[in-house]
Write a structure and sequence with these properties.
This protein is an alpha/beta fold and 324 residues long. It has helices spanning 16-28, 49-58, 82-92, 103-115, 127-137, 151-201, 207-216, 219-227, 239-248, and strands at 5-9, 32-34, 62-67, 96-102, 145-148, 252-253, 264-273, 276-285, 308-314. The strands form 2 sheets. Strands 2-1-3-4-5 form a 5-stranded parallel β-sheet, with helices on both faces. It has a 4-stranded antiparallel β-sheet with strand order 6-7-8-9, with helices on one face. The radius of gyration is 38 Å and the shape is elongated.
Length: 324
């Protein structure tokens, strides 16, 4: 069974302990944690290592981004750090992203917003981080941003968030099932309504109309279709029509004086196998036809599965039985 894959994105040295805590938490949830320092990312020789990290995000379901006071290693193709690029790539791919900003960094960011136009202002945190946070806070909704002091706070928030997603999925599945049932009910009501209208339109025909409806859905048609593994609809109205249809399927009509059971019509068909020839014998109850050989109309509720039988037998090529 596949598991949700969670990419843990942050600078390494300042958040080493938090990364380990998040790894254990993710695994305890039954998910798969992806951390570059543990070799979870397959690096190749064709591209720069950071490119493989970005590509790995494509195969993940969730990205947890932890932003602190270190800028980290710069990306080779932009003014951002690799960690910042990971967040940007995940957002561009439409991944579910959870962003956690160190509370001390967030407090100084508020100071930065008030003084960023004053070039002489000195900050304790790299100004590039504040500049990136401006982009982060400008992201559209759907990528929640939280503040934290400890790794435990991050874990508590993620547990609540993921539990909420699971509960929402359960509600959606319940609603989907209810919608399906409602749609089926509506279709059934439409069918009944159509049938009532049809019977009303032809009410002068009385019992004959009901007879035709029942006959068109005769259980023997489905029974023969399943027993003979027939790929298309079976339909006949009389014994001669059934004989012709079975003949096209390779069956021969057994004469009445050779029938095994005088209560059944019987047909046979040869089967050639490597292990030896076989014979398929089909039996259909004579009670299903009237004296003129016409098929009687029978509702599904009155159907008896024993009225149609299919048997496979060994063929006795050198039989001593003589039919006279």
């Amino acid at each position: 069974m596949s598991r949700p894959r969670v990419f843990i994105s942050s600078t390494y040295f300042d958040f080493k302990t938090i990364r380990e805590d998040l790894d254990r938490f993710v695994e305890s949830m039954g998910y798969e944690a992806i951390r570059h320092e543990l070799g979870h990312i397959a690096y190749g020789r064709e591209e720069k290592p950071e490119e493989y990290a970005y590509r790995e995000i494509e195969y993940c379901d969730i990205l947890v981004s932890v932003i602190g006071g270190r800028f980290g290693t710069g990306a080779s193709e932009s003014q951002y750090s690799i960690t910042q690029e990971e967040l940007r790539k995940a957002y561009d791919m439409g991944k579910q992203v959870y962003i956690f900003v160190d509370r001390a960094v967030h407090h100084e960011f508020d100071f930065y917003k008030l003084n960023k136009d004053n070039l002489s202002t000195v900050y304790s945190i790299d100004k590039r981080i504040h500049s990136f946070l401006e982009e982060v806070y400008a992201l559209p909704r759907g990528n929640p941003i939280f503040h934290f002091n400890t790794g435990g706070e991050i874990i508590t928030i993620l547990r609540e968030q993921w539990a909420g997603i699971f509960q929402r999925l359960l509600v959606q599945e319940t609603n989907r099932m209810q919608t399906t049932v409602t749609q089926e009910l509506q279709r059934s009501l439409q069918t009944v309504d159509t049938l009532v209208k049809y019977l009303s339109d032809v009410k002068n025909q009385g019992d004959q109309t009901i007879h035709e409806i029942i006959f068109n859905n005769h259980p023997i048609f489905q029974e023969l279709k399943e027993k003979l593994n027939n790929g298309y609809r079976v339909y006949f109205t009389s014994k001669p029509e059934l004989d012709a249809w079975l003949k096209a399927k390779g069956f021969s009509d057994i004469p009445e004086f050779l029938e095994d059971d005088d209560k059944f019509f019987e047909w046979s068909s040869d089967i050639k196998l490597k292990s030896g020839p076989l014979v398929r014998a089909l039996f259909v109850s004579k009670s299903l036809f009237d004296q003129e050989g016409n098929l009687k109309a029978i509702s599904p509720g009155r159907w008896d599965a024993s009225w149609v039988k299919l048997e496979t037998r060994d063929k006795k090529e050198d039989s001593d039985d003589i039919p006279f």
